C-alpha cells in the first residue's frame, strides 16, 4: 500500500515554518471569512483564482443559507437539552447555537489567527504573544496559576 506524502503546507512540529505555509494558511482564513459573509480586505490583486474563489463562495453561501435551519446532530442535541432545561426552570426556551462559525479545520489556523497578519508579536495590557519556531507563545502579564498564593497552598 502506497502512502501519500504529507502536504508541504502543513506545519509539522520541529520543522521551521515556511513563508509558503503561512501564505496558504492566510488564504484559507480569508476564504473562510468571505464564506461567512465578511468582506475581503485584500482585493487589490484580483486573479483568475480569486474570481473562481468568489464564484464558489457565492454558491457555498447560498447553500448555507438554505440549510441554516437544519443544525448538525450534535448541535440539535445540545439545543434540545438546553431547551428542556430552560422549560423546567420557566425560562425562554428558544435558544439556538450559532450557525455561522469559523471552523479551525486545518492544522496551523489557530496559530495564524493568534497574531497580526504582517506581524510576529502582539501586546496589550494583559498579554504579550510572539511567534516562536514551533508555534505562538502567549505570555500573560500575571499568571494566576503559579502566583504566590497557589504556591503557598501546595506546601
Taking all residues together, what is the mean pLDDT? Answer: 76
Please indicate the percent range of residues in DSSP E strands (runs of 2 or more).
5-15%
Q: Unreliable stretches, pLDDT < 50, 5 or more residues?
A: 1-16
Rg, Å, rounded: 21 Å
Number of domains: 2
The SS-based structural class is: mainly alpha
Work out the number of β strands: 3
Task: Report the span from N to C terminus.
Answer: 56 Å
Helix content: 40-55%
Helix count from the secondary structure assignment:
5
Biggest sheet features: 3 strands, antiparallel
The secondary-structure element order is HHHHEEEH
Looking across the biggest beta sheet, what order are the strands in?
1-2-3
The dominant shape is flat
Summarize the structure.
The chain is built from five helices and three strands. With 155 residues, the chain is mainly α. Strands 1-2-3 form a three-stranded antiparallel beta sheet, with no helix packed on it.
Amino acid at each position: 500500500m502506497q502512502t501519500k506524502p504529507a502536504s508541504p503546507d502543513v506545519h509539522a512540529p520541529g520543522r521551521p515554518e515556511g513563508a509558503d505555509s503561512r501564505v496558504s494558511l492566510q488564504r484559507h482564513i480569508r476564504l473562510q471569512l468571505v464564506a461567512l459573509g465578511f468582506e475581503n480586505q485584500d482585493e487589490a490583486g484580483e486573479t483568475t483564482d480569486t474570481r473562481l474563489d468568489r464564484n464558489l463562495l457565492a454558491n457555498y453561501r447560498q447553500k448555507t443559507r438554505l440549510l441554516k435551519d437544519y443544525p448538525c446532530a450534535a448541535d440539535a442535541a445540545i439545543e434540545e437539552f438546553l431547551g428542556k432545561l430552560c422549560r423546567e426552570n420557566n425560562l425562554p426556551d428558544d435558544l439556538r447555537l450559532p450557525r455561522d462559525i469559523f471552523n479551525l479545520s486545518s492544522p496551523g489556523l489557530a496559530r495564524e489567527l493568534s497574531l497580526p497578519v504582517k506581524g510576529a508579536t502582539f501586546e496589550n495590557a494583559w498579554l504579550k504573544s510572539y511567534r516562536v519556531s514551533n508555534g505562538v507563545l502567549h505570555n500573560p502579564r500575571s499568571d494566576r496559576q503559579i502566583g504566590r498564593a497557589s504556591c503557598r497552598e501546595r506546601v
